[in-house]
Amino acid sequence: MQFGVFTVGDVTQDPTTGRTVSEAERIKAMVAIAVKAEEVGLDVFAQGEHHNPPFVPSSPTTMLGFIAAQTSKIILSTSTTLITTNDPVKIAEDYAMLQHLADGRVDLMMGRGNTGPVYPWFGQDIRNGIALAVENYALLRRLWREDVVDWEGKFRTPLQGFTSTPRPLDDVPPFVWHGSIRSPEIAEQAAYYGDGFFHNNIFWPISHTKQMIDLYRRRFEHYGHGAADQAIVGLGGQVFMRKNSQDAVKEFRPYFDNAPVYGHGPSLEDFTRETPLTVGSPQQVIERTLSFREHFGDYQRQLFLMDHAGLPLKTVLEQLDILGSEVVPVLRKEFEAKRPAHVPEAPTHASLKAAAERARELETVSPEVVGLEGTR
Prior knowledge:
Elements: E1 2-7, H1 23-39, E2 44-47, H2 60-68, E3 75-78, E4 81-82, H3 88-101, E5 106-111, H4 118-121, H5 129-145, E6 149-151, E7 159-162, E8 175-179, H6 184-193, E9 196-199, H7 206-222, E10 233-241, H8 245-258, H9 268-274, E11 278-280, H10 282-296, E12 301-305, H11 313-338, H12 349-364, H13 367-374
Parallel strand pairs: 1-2, 1-12, 2-3, 3-5, 4-5, 5-8, 8-9, 9-10, 10-11, 10-12
Antiparallel strand pairs: 6-7
Helix pairs in contact: 1-11, 2-3, 3-5, 6-7, 10-11
């Protein structure tokens, strides 16, 4: 199981000091968080994609490429790649390039985002959101898997004899998660291709999240990719920790109360009861996160949001130290002990490359041998 952090890259005033960092400071802070995440033993750093204030991550490949040069192990992911408003040809090129630079430590989470005005900014209509997600991703898959592509669709100009360069590293495209919190069509899309499904459930109750994940699992099995409990699932979460839970609540409350995304709404207590947000001791975070398995089954990736709402970088780095030293080692051990042998681990470039090599080896075996193998 993979554990990591994701960032939305918001530039938010610190309510305890009244100070707002500059865009340059926020960008450099995101890099520092990624480097720290690797240092404390996390598996994944993921960043969103936004094209509007108060967010800064408008160019994920630039950011992740810079981070790739300063790290050696951590998987670099997006927590949203806007499949609706980005050209799939450019996605194919940009992320294959990043894949080479990062020695395969790259995957993507496709999503439609949560900012309606982004569609006309990039020449699209929000009413076509689902159709764009479906068509653009179908083309992206072909661009990564076929050396020469002829294609015609509804939302972009046709392609004739087109080759996307560079080709994916080792002829293995980056693994794709489809991220959605409310659209069953996206869960269906993930299941159809046998890709991962990531439910970033940071604002949603268990009942809704379970409904979406159960749909994805059923349809994953329907399309013949494996049993429902073998589907590749990821979850979001939010945590804030101190040794003493009362201290954690006291310190985090002003950030929660004034956060642009949920401030001035439900109380901190109500929000922690209804969503995955956990504010307390490391042990409380461990217990709450382990409980996700009871509701959603065995899953492969857990990402935490830790750097939002104006929290200073020093505090975020302290949180990462706690997460890496006190929380994730316990979670890793407990989840692994409970995971049945037939439930797959989270995909990596190495595992996908090995699977592709096995498939190519089978293709070279004569039909007679394959038939004999099947009788054993």
